[in-house]
Amino acid sequence: MLIDHLNRQLRERADQALTRQRRTAESPCAPLQHVSRPGQPARELLAFCSNDYLGLANHPVLTEALAEGARRFGAGSGASHLVSGHSRPHATLEAELAAWMAPTIPNAQALYFCTGYMANLAVVAALAGPGSTVFSDNLNHASLIDGVRLSKAPLQRYAHCDLEALERLLGQCTTPIKLIVTDAVFSMDGDLADLRATLALAERFDAWLVVDDAHGFGVLGPQGQGSLAHFGLHSERLIVMGTLGKAAGVAGAFVAAHPTVIDWLVQTARTYIYTTAAPPAMAHAVSASLALIAGDEGTQRRAQLQRLITQLRTQLAALIAEHPHLGWQLADSATAIQPLIVGENNAALALSAALEAQGMWVPAIRPPTVPVGTARLRIVLSASHTAQDVQRLVDGLSVATQRAARSLHA
Predict the structure, then answer these.
(1) Residue 251's closest CA among 261, 260, 242?
(2) What is the tens place of the pLDDT at every residue in 141-164?
(3) 3-state class (DSSP) for residue 360
(4) Residue in 128, 131, 257 with CA at minimum distance from that of residue 180
(5) What is the percent of the chain with per-residue pLDDT over 90, rounded to a whole number?
(6) Structure-derived torsion over alpha carbons of residues 172, 177, 179, 180, reported in degrees to the nearest 10
(7) Cβ 202 vs Cβ 167: under 8 Å
(8) Are 378 and 337 contacting, i.e. CB atoms less than 8 angstroms apart?
(9) pLDDT above 80 (res 402)
(10) Across all residues in the chain, what is the average pLDDT?
(11) In whole angstroms, what is the distance from residue 328 CA to residue 308 CA?
């Protein structure tokens, strides 16, 4: 019975062009990757899909740091942090991350998690509960949404970046504890939350502001310190989650906050307490990544990324203007995430397939990840891309638009 039920559900997903498929990367994360599908040989594709924004995932300094960490501290941690798995590299990294966030959060402390998903689950579920209300942007990441569900706290959702709606909801709230949770850079749209105005509301209504900076850490702000530094914020009301497997190029995540908040997470956060600590070598490699991000090379890579963003947006805007009948839209994003909104699921899949036929890997993103009717290509740039890579993508999209235009007139 279960198998029959699941098969029916899978057929329904296929009928709606919602089936997801995995590919296997046969080479390191880089703009040019050898990728295979089940039953097919690997082929080289120019990838515009990884979150390796600074191009550090295969950086020789980080690969050597990872190997050195394994030689010094072994392959695994052996236990949870609260048993015997909290190693010197973990402690060192947490101190470094706390120092990074100190200009933003007074007396900040940091806690290292295996993944960003686990960190967000921990923060929301541990801090929200009876006597609290959570206020959540409608386009927040699934991990924040799931954290609210686990907390069982009352939820007030507000329209994407609608701070007037958030203000009204805060004004109507009577619970003593209020948590505003928001992405800093929204992962499927690439736009930034107005964190300065959101923090002002938190201070006015005696609320805490939980910020998921997965896509801003390492890229935005002075020395890549993230979205909060980008906005020049400073408050002990801030609780920040940063991912270390995107711009930082390694793995894991951290939460930075007031020392009392971090202590509470250590005592109560189930996704921290009841899981084996990440390998010490990972933390050792992240420490090396922080040095790169904050140094001259990090500055140069962020500048290169910004040049590529400007190039892509300029050229795509011109291409879309030439073909208004297609109804494509370029999202309003100043970040490395540059979504090309196509509309229908099948149209997005066809466009992705057309680019793959030309040797490029740009996945189609469909509901429920994005709202119905907004299927898109999530184009993601890396500092490791070149201007020639971006030109190749634009040329490929130009070929695809010509084919789409001919099919509309056929």
Answers:
(1) 242
(2) 999 999 999 999 999 999 999 999
(3) strand
(4) 128
(5) 90
(6) 30
(7) no
(8) yes
(9) no
(10) 95
(11) 21
Q: How many CB atoms lie within 10 A of CB 159?
A: 12
CA distance 368 to 56: 30
Q: What is the DSSP string of 180-224?
A: EEEESB-TTT-PBP-HHHHHHHHHHTT-EEEEE-TTTTTTSSGGG
Q: What is the pLDDT of residue 410?
A: 47
CB 136 within 8 A of CB 198: no
Contacts of 225 (CB under 8 A, 6+ apart): 100, 101, 103, 104, 217
The pairing of beta strand 337-343 with beta strand 375-380? antiparallel
SS (H, E, C) 95-116: HHHHHHHCCCCCCCEEEEECCH
pTM above 0.90, yes or no: yes
Closest CA to 377 of 408, 406, 407, 350: 350
Token look-up 């500092």 returns 383
C-alpha dist (Å) from residue 394 to 105, 164, 188, 347, 378: 41, 38, 20, 18, 14
Query: Which phi-psi region, left, alpha or beta, contains residue 56 (left: φ > 0; alpha: ψ -120 to 50)?
Result: alpha
Q: Is the CB of residue 43 less than 8 Å from the CB of residue 50?
A: no
Domains and their CATH numbers in the chain: 25-54+299-409 (3.90.1150.10), 60-294 (3.40.640.10)
Question: Would you please indicate which residues are annotated as catalytic (active-site) residues?
Answer: 187, 215, 246
Q: Which two tokens stand for residue 167?
A: 């203000």
pLDDT digits (tens, 9 = 90+) for 211-268: 999 999 999 999 999 999 999 999 999 999 999 999 999 999 999 999 999 999 999 9
Q: How many residues does the chain have?
A: 410
Measured CA to CA, the distance from residue 43 to residue 57 in angstroms comes to 20
Closest CA to 96 of 187, 223, 237, 194: 223
| Peptide bond just before 339 cis, omega within 30 deg | no
